[in-house]
Amino acid sequence: MNRLLRFFVWTLVAILGAAAFATIALRRSEPISALWIVTAAVCTYSIAYRFYSRFIAMRVLLLNARRATPSERLDNGRDFVPTNKWVVFGHHFAAIAGPGPLVGPVLAAQFGYLPGVLWILVGSVFGGCVQDFVVLLFSVRRDGKSLTEMAREEISPLGGSVAFIAVITIIIILLGAIGLIVVNALKGSPWGTFTIAATIPIALFMGFYLRRIRPGKVIEASLMGFILVMLSIWGGQWISHSPYASWFSFSGITLCFALIVYGFAASALPVWLLLAPRDYLSTFVKLGTISILALGILISRPTLHMPALTQFIDGSGPVFAGSIFPFALITIACGAISGFHSLISSGTTPKLVQRETETRMIGYGAMIAESFVAIMAVIAACVLDPGVYFAVNSPAGIVGASAVAATHTISSWGFAVTPAQMSDLARAVGEQSLFNRTGGAPAFALGMAHIFSRTIGGTALLGIWYHFAIMFEALFILTTLDAGTRVGRFMLQDGLGRIWKPLGRTSWYPSILLTSGIIVSLWGYFLYAGVRDPLGGINSVWPLFGIANQLLAIVALCVSTTILIKSGKTRYMAVTLVPLFVLVSITFTAAYHKVLNPNPRIGFLAHAHQIAASATAGASRLAFNDRLDAFITTILVALVFLVVAESARVWFQVLSGRRKPSLHESPFIPSQLAPEEM
Amino acid sequence: MPKPNFATMLRTTRNAAALLVCILREIFDENSYARFLARTDRASSTEAYAEFIHQEAHISERRPRCC
Fold it and tell me: Which one of A515, A536, A557 terminates a domain?
């Protein structure tokens, strides 16, 4: 009876999901409710988790609850601690959730909502979730080893070195890209800048409070920090209308240098003073905001105004250039699959997992939650009038610098918008202008404010909600920025320490200052180049970030496939080999276009050639930036190609019997913990 | 299937709330500090917290935040 009931329930879920997909894909004549997308997503996740992740757990990975995990065997009460699965799930999700799944889907909405939704769902359940789950389990079976260590042991030393270079390069490009999002969101916005600036003294206060007043009461301090941040959002409204507004109204270049100085300070200062409290505050705001956004969508049931597909699928989009394949997929990046997650899945998380069987819920499940965040970002972007969306996200170099020119260009594409409409909207959210705010963050903030204001406060609170959303995005972008700078600094110190030992000492101040300076200069250069880019920067920096991120996922999937083949699971290697093949096709095609496409809006070299031949001020510097981007893309692809080739060599040798498969797993030790049902 | 009564619902809600608090305490390193105090057999104080931060710095500083 139970079996029959289960069959009936899952059949219903499948039918409901299919109906939702049919609606979002086929209903073109009128706007649809966002609830159809939510329904399609929830049904897809439910079926994928119940059936596909179970298949991987039981047939492919053979999860064994009786095998002791490193948290049990190496329990030291510090980094190896057996922890409740829900607690690890929360911890893991808080670490993997970043600005990528919010920004990427918003930018990709220029193609319409359909490509983004389909790739986020398909890419996550067959790619991202599988990668996170498999890497987590393999790390658990290797005492919590990192991805680079696993690549070195299971593929070859070359694989490990390439993974190391890929990681540090990705961190640098990532920081430049997300820094650009903050700059574009805050330039000429005294309200936003005041709010974000206020988070620095608030974080310092929290650090002082934790250290001197109530030691260790982090939740309490974060709650106080959150209240102070909310007050600063309220106060920012007053600042933006006061004579002090000019104190907080900066150009992109000024904000760029402010961010560089901030990044250096955050990397060089003691962690308890700024980095840790900011991290706590950001996590608090992030988890709360994501939850209330989900509630807001369910309560307000907004209508999507963006069509399912736009004419920009041909590659002529104003937000970024490039056709739907591969650029929609590269742009969405983390919402479907993120190579960066493999660092978390082989970092802190495997050292906390209590039982092997729990890796399914933590690895696969947390990525489902991240993917749902990306779905919410698509909804937030698509509830805006398409004309408004394009006015906010298009650079002046494409649509024109004046309001009249921009609205005329956008309206000529069939997305009606007027200067008065944009000016009213800017006034309603307390901004001077909403034109040319590229980067995705302001469009997401507008969509989020739209959803929230339908639930609480109406248009009267639109400005508060908008700046709340900007604060939310900027806060955790800055947290990623300072944590990333510090992680990059440590990696550089590890590398330089092999050349000259004192440089590897993480507490030696000259080394701290030198390595912090190098890392900040590297991402600062990308940021500066993006700010000066006449096409808005996002057009070149974000695809570069997407390519780098997905290349890291290729490394993770190479390691996973190698381990599966070595374990004698050749029959099931398609589980990781198919997403690997898809990602290689996507990233290598994207890299080819970004380097060699003859269209100057797409190809770095074509753009460099065009700009060098023009009389533009600073043409040689702009052309140099393009050539540098082309060089970095080529090097990254070449390195990852080496990993793929090296992996393929190992697979061939093992499958043809020329090499005895040797796994570097920790030996089986029976768990003393009571087994739990899968 | 047994009918859920009020006491069961209350217990379930209480357990869920306790789990939520536990998740938050782990994310915000409060559990980690509690384990440190238990391991070193000390009471919470500014000195103990300073030492905890110093000892844990190598873990928290290297913890990447994803994109």
Answer: A536
Q: What is the DSSP string of A180-238?
A: HHHHHHHTT-HHHHHHHHHHHHHHHHHHHIIIIISTT-HHHHHHHHHHHHHHHHHHHHH
Whether A100 is covered by a domain: the verdict is no
Residues of A in contact with B43 (CB under 8 A): none
| Residue A303 per-residue DSSP state | E
Q: Which residues of B lie inside 8 Å of A (Cβ-Cβ)?
A: 19, 22-36, 38-39, 44-46, 48-50, 52-53, 55-67
pLDDT (tens digit, 9 = 90+) per residue, A356-412? Answer: 999 999 999 999 999 999 999 999 999 999 999 999 999 998 999 899 999 999 999
Indicate whether A316 belongs to any domain: no
In A252-311, the residues whose Cβ lies within 8 Å of chain B are: 271-272, 275-276, 279-280, 283-284, 287
Q: Per-residue pLDDT tens for A452-471?
A: 998 887 788 899 999 999 98
List, in sequence order, the alpha helices (H) in A339-440: 341-345, 359, 366-382, 386-393, 396-399, 403-412, 419-428
Instruction: Give me the helix-helix angle, A462-497 and A157-186, nearest 10°.
Output: 150
Residue A410 lies in domain: 189-305+337-536
Residues A389 and A505 in one domain: yes
Q: How far is CA A642 from CA A16, A543, A555, in A?
A: 44, 22, 10
Instruction: Note the ipTM here.
Output: 0.85
Q: Is the dihedral of CA A297, A303, A308, A309 positive or negative?
A: negative
Q: To which H or E segment does residue A557 belong?
A: helix A538-566
What's the number of CA atoms in the CB half-sphere (13 Å) around residue A649?
11
Q: Is the pLDDT of residue A677 over 60?
A: no
Q: Name the pTM for this structure.
A: 0.91
Query: What is the per-residue pLDDT across A169-180, written as a single tens digit (0 to 9) for each?
Result: 888 998 898 899
pLDDT, one tens digit per residue, over A465-495 is 999 999 888 887 888 888 888 888 888 888 8
Instruction: Please list every residue in chain B whose beta carbon sits closer than 8 Å to the beta carbon of residue A551.
Output: none
In a shared domain, residues A596 and A627: yes
Rg of the Cα atoms in chain B? 18
